[in-house]
Specification:
Order of helices and strands: HHHEEEEEEEEEEEEEEE
Protein name: DUF427 domain-containing protein
InterPro entries: DUF427, DUF427_sf
Distance between the termini: 83 Å
Number of domains: 2
Strand order of the largest sheet: 4-3-11-12
Helix content: 10-25%
Organism: Tetradesmus obliquus
Radius of gyration: 27 Å
Number of helices: 3
CATH class of the largest domain: Mainly Beta
Number of strands: 15
CATH superfamily of the largest domain: Domain of unknown function (DUF427)
Low-confidence stretches: 1-9, 41-46
Largest sheet: 4 strands, antiparallel
């Protein structure tokens, strides 16, 4: 009889506090979907990352509707959703913004002269000055680009420094080094060309 009594008794934790056991079960039921959702979100973000070593060479030009904003100090220099971006192996994207969406009254021709890109042609440089701040030769454009890049004729591209540049409200990081002008965002994965020792990549 005593053995039968022991066999039919419920577990001690449930007998002592049945509401605690129910609450724990309910909490687990809530937490599991949240944890699974977080894992799925992390996997989705990882899957959406663009790897710059998957970009083509020669580079590809493509339109983008992402919201781009460029500021010098507190002054908005450019604001557009009608830009282009250039994708090239080992480089973060380089964005080209239409002159209609740039405040060209702040631009003057730079004394830097021109540089030559094997893919796009000769680049001209521009200084930007606004509200007591100045960025010398930190903007460039192609006035007579090669045929594959004809769509960005007269468009402006900005070095991420000393400007504050945003892609969909995310402040970008400058491509390593001071030669290339790519914008690094959280959805782009390197390693990136530009740092010391990478110029021959």
């Amino acid at each position: 009889m005593l053995q039968l009594l022991f066999r039919t008794l419920p577990p001690a934790s449930t007998t002592q506090n049945p509401t605690a056991a129910a609450a724990a079960a309910a909490g687990l039921a809530v937490q599991l979907p949240i944890r699974l959702a977080r894992r799925k979100s992390c996997r989705a973000m990882a899957a959406q990352k663009e790897k710059v070593w998957d970009y083509p060479r020669p580079p590809r030009l493509e339109p983008t509707s992402r919201h781009l904003v460029v500021k010098l100090g507190d002054t908005v220099i450019a604001d557009t959703t009608q830009a282009y971006r250039v994708l090239e192996t080992s480089h973060p994207p380089t964005y080209y913004l239409p002159p209609a969406d740039c405040r060209e009254q702040f631009f003057t021709a730079s004394s830097k002269g021109q540089t030559f890109c094997e893919w796009k042609g000769k680049a001209s440089y521009h200084d930007v000055a606004a509200c007591g701040q100045e960025a010398k030769a930190r903007v460039w454009s192609y006035q007579n680009p090669t045929q594959p890049f004809a769509a960005i004729k007269g468009y402006y591209s900005f070095y991420a420094s000393p400007f504050t540049c945003e892609v969909d409200s995310e402040v970008v990081q400058a491509q390593p080094g001071d030669f290339y002008g790519g914008w690094v965002t959280s959805d782009v994965e390197g390693p990136f060309k530009g740092a010391p020792g990478t110029m021959r990549w």
